[in-house]
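Researcher: Structure for this, please.
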Amino acid sequence: MHASDAVSGPAQHRALASSTVAFTVCFAVWTIFAIIGIQIRKDLNLSETQFGLLVGTPILTGSLLRVVLGIWTDRFGGRLMFVATMLAASAATFLLTFANTYPQMLLAALGVGIAGSSFAVGVAYVSRWYPPERQGMALGIFGAGNVGSAVTKFFAPLVMVAFGWQTVAEIWASVLAFTAILLFVTTKDDPVLVARRRSGEKPKGSWLELEPLKNVQVWRFSLYYFFSFGAFVALALWLPQYLTKVYGVDIRLAGVIAACFSVPASLFRAYGGHLADVYGARRVMYWTFLVSVAATFVLSYPATDYVIHGVNGPISFHAEMGVVGFTVAIFVLGFFMAMGKAAVFKHIPVYYPQHVGSVGGLVGMIGGLGGFILPIVFGVLLDLTGLWTSCFMLLFLIALGSLTWMHLAIRQMEREATGAALEKLPAFPELQGLEPAVVKKPSGAVLTDWRPEDKGFWQQTGRKIARRNLWLSIPSLLLSFAIWQVWSVVVAKLPLVGFQYTTDQLFWLAALPGLSGATLRIFYSFMVPVFGGRLWTTLTTWSLIIPALGIGYAVQNPETPYVVMLMLALLCGFGGGNFASSVANISFFFPKAEKGNALALNSGLGNLGVSVVQFAVPLVITAGIFGSFGGDAAMTQTPAGPVPLWLQNAGFFFVPFIVLSALGNWFGMNDIASARASFSEQAVIFQRKHNWLMCWLYTGTFGSFIGYSAGFPLLSKTLFPDVNALQYAFLGPLVGALSRSATGWLADRFGGARVTFWAFVLMMIGVSGVLYFIGIRQEPHAFAGFFAAFLLLFLASGVGNASTFQMVPVIMAKEMGRLMPNATPEVRRVQAEKESAAITGFISAMAAFGAFFVPKSYGSSIALTGGPEAALWAFLIFYITCLAITWGFYCRRGGLLHDIEHAPKATAAASR
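Model: Predicted structure, token format:
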């Protein structure tokens, strides 16, 4: 029984409330140099490095003392140690007003730092009032005392401007002393200390308290706190100066803006503790590092002026984050740092119930040292590089390294333990080998028992989970296709807003996303078994924000260099790459009997993103839907007169949907524990003949679909300049996407090879029709015939997309009998699943090059011959080869799939 179980609720709440208030005041004193240090720097004419040392010195003291005070708290009780710590810090802060030289300031700053060591005392004191299942929330509330940093930033500038920095120190010292007395009067000794006194038990010696610190895993665990807390403290100290120097704001406004970082990084720590109690600390830590990587990357970019020496003279381009954008980004960073701080300390009283003071003191010390070291390094980096954003560059590297290291360690443990063993793993790999005091509730995010081919399991449990993952995957894939193909609409509008590009340059912009997306698919197709579908889908969805925002900013300035536009076009390939990992992930969830339809729904409805972008973008660019935040409109000339155009909305429109989808993926999707494999294990597919045959066939179906989607708007505008083709362009991808999602059942019922064969027949008819109507394009109704022929191509390619995907798992299931004759049926099934997923992703990568080659072929054909006919004839010949391969290897009597597809349904299902 935990000692806190016998404690009354009012006593618990009083101890928590008083401790939180006391820690808030301590933290306000601990960070006092963030404000008064600016005036001291002016008075003493300090360099950047000297200023960083002055600001960081209190952090050093507060960090180093945490281990000692944590041990003393375990021995003598938190109430006594809390009061003594606060009174000592109060005296040192008051004596600060008598310092006149830099060495005296440093000496006084050492004493002020005692206030920061109160954290180790408070963690040990508060944790003893609550049972383990409530400690995450309690410590989160206590840790919210970090908001004291914001209190200093709000009020200290006002007092300093009116009365001087000495008055700030005097008032803060007085409030700290008064709070110490109030804490002593309103609280009692913790229940563990009381029980020990009653039993006559002597406290452990200091060396025994240090025993857990011998474990290297504890030190590794401490490094997470180095970023989540240490970087928070460093930025809390650094931001006022950063804002006054970079943006030229008044010190009072700088304090308010800096508080926009400190407040969420403090108050939401309590919410982070609640999330750690409910969802587990691992999930919270993932979000901390993922968002921190994104935020610090954005904040790292310095104000830059580009000057490109073009043919017609210099071209200028300016990139800079304004103070509003900076405030928003720093708020988001602070919020997720708060989540991380709570998640780290959730585990200390659980895994070390008898050593909370010493272990919590060590973890707090490492974090506090981050608050001391980082401001100094910030100053050194600024002196060396001259870049104010160098501080965020450093934090980006720390966050990225922490995320990578943490995830690889967790994945290594999970690969070595599936099933029941996986449920017993601790939430952090650093704690492997330690026995937790309370068994952690296993995370529902990892499915340790997944048997989709077991009908009973599938009906009772599997179908519901699989469908949830499918319906979360579809919006992400739809947005991916939308970002991938957004240039197909944007390029047609660029000349209207002042961009002077040739036809060939415009075709390059339309084609490059296809090239980069196809290339990324090669890598993405192997990532789900390595990283897990849930994490990888979340990451890849977040990545869509980069090109979406980039396009929104770039198209507002017609002087944006062409090379920048090319880079943004390449970045849109993030969306194209997502398809490979998406289909690989979904393929693991469904049994073979439903896999074709599931992949058809995922891919087909995801393909709707092409139609969505071609339908929605022409509408959203006609209105200022984001107000002043979205930028000004460009005036375009039309027969009816000048019309405003917000082309930037083509990118900005998708940003909120990307955020919502990414959040949904993280909180709603699952990983399958058995669906793990290294790249080398998946690389066996390169030895499979059918992998390369299916690459050829899927290029004929999907490569055509995505290529025609990318090239149709510009091709139509080039061949039929008098027709507003953009208002019809979305119909082709719409037909292709719907035909894919609606015809997956055909392949499941009649066989993928047979359906694929007839799909290629229709595509040959369609491309022949396009050639015919191009030849008579001067006729009045030529565009209608041209458009109808393309709709047939889209329809047939959609049907073929679904049927080719259905072929892959059937082919590999049959091939495993030949490749692994001595293996058990279950081993063959698992291997077939892994290879099918890898092949599905890889063939989608190869086929995606159609998004580059089809529009580029149009452009090259027009440039060389004056028309697109040569490209279309090449497409027709290619479809003939696809038809021959489908018949020769799979459909004919004696082909690999003939017996399966022509057998009675029950027999075919059994053979699979």
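Researcher: Any notable elements?
Model: The beta strands are 304-310, 313-319, 446-447, 634-638, 641-645, 671-672. The radius of gyration is 32 Å.
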